[in-house]
Amino acid sequence: MSVTFFADAAVEEVNMANANAARVLDVLGYDELAGDAEADDFLGRVLVALALVPADTGRPPTAEGRFVDCGRRAGYVLERLEDLRVLAEEARASGLPVYWG
User: Fold this and answer.
1) How many angstroms separate the CA atoms of 59 and 32, rounded?
2) At the N or C end, where does the chain have fewer CB atoms within 10 A?
3) Domain ranges, ordered by start, for the chain
């Protein structure tokens, strides 16, 4: 399962696994894996997160029975926030909201 962040076909999409998207959305102050926001609000949250979020140390992979969590490499959250910054700026320039789900 995954979560895709998008504005429309003209703006590049950002896709993440559910667990990674949940972490990024938490950093942005959202608590749902599906939603939308005006581009200015979304961009503001991303910029604040980029300024305040400490270095992401990642998460090691784990396995329990048949469930495998591949973990998250160090720096992933900051990389994805930068991708979301670009998406939000493009959405704002086009007058479009940002959606995710």
Assistant:
1) 21
2) N
3) 2-100
